[in-house]
Amino acid sequence: MKIIIALGNYGEKYNNTRHNVGFMFFDFLIGKSFLWEYDKRFNADIAYKDNIYFIKPRTFVNNSGLSLRKFMDYYNLLPKKLGLFPKKNLDLTDILTVVHDDLDIDFGRYKISTNSSSAGHNGVKSIIAHLKTQNFKRVRIGINNEYRKKIATERFVLQRFSRDENITIEKIFEEIKKDEI
Questions:
Q1: Residue 19 catalytic?
Q2: What predicted TM-score, i.e. pTM, was given to this entire model?
Q3: Domains and CATH numbers, the chain
Q4: 14-50 per-position pLDDT tens digit
Q5: Residues contacting residue 111 through CB under 8 Å, at least 6 positions apart
Q6: CA 71 to CA 165: how far, in whole Å?
């Protein structure tokens, strides 16, 4: 089993925003018409295809770890210490990939990394805090551009992509797909 979780904010008003580039990648990868089912146990939309679970948390970006932890606990994917608490620093790189926006990477670029800190991304911080490890794969999609420094971060990440940027985003998604995340 493999899990790919995309970070984003749930709801129409957040569609096509920089913070939702993870959700946009899922729409590209498996299609908007793919059957997503809301699962209240995890407070997330879940899709399953080719032995891969795709997770879109409805907790908003900053609390993404809540949904993922509930999912991982439900499927017993986190070995426990003393039968209660997840072991720290587990290596989840073979089963977990997190797809998210990254302000430190220029728009039109992406990086795939493992075992790296959150670098200030609150959604990744939440996942690390809830899983007690940072040792998982991350697909970091760059959203930084020339306007970034002129606008408060909170406003910038909630801006919509322009038409031209959407064309570039699709090209980036193609490249990421080829990397066989």
A1: yes
A2: 0.92
A3: 2-178 (3.40.50.1470)
A4: 999 999 999 999 989 887 667 889 999 999 999 998 8
A5: 102, 105, 139, 140, 142
A6: 33
